Amino acid sequence: MVAMLQAMETVIFVPEVAENALEVLVTLDELDEHGPEGAITDRWRIYHGDPPDVRWAIMNIDAGKLEGSVIDGEVLLRANPFASEESRICKHMNQAHSADLHILALHFAHIEIEKPVMVGIDPLGIDIRGRFEVIRINTTEAMQTAEDARVILKGMVEKVKDLPHPADVTSSDGSDG
Fold it and tell me: pTM of the full predicted structure?
């Protein structure tokens, strides 16, 4: 990690089978978890747990390359309109709607999660942590406000709650359900 922090630039390329894989040129800046931007490390821990030994860094996108086109890094950045309300929304969903999170994971991701924990929300969906993984539930339409999220997520649950248990379900412990 130290070598990456000292590099002038770093290219991140996650190979995909598709020809339209995105390559991203980034700059890494060391992050003090107890400093002013330390809350970022808390968000990571909510998703992934507490790492045993880590040096934190902020990744700034300088540019991207997709299908031969180069894209300025600022164009690739999009603020999450839920950022200021995310923890409140997640806390409410986890306390008052755990059964609904279970239904969403079961019917939209085909994963049986015994104790689902909503860890994130953005305009295109929610993230639910299970025992071993974080799953993504894409919403049926984009959400811009907390009220949008309430209406859309409630509608998704209402649409599938009385459907039979999906046949091709994996349990959160990795076994077939």
Answer: 0.73
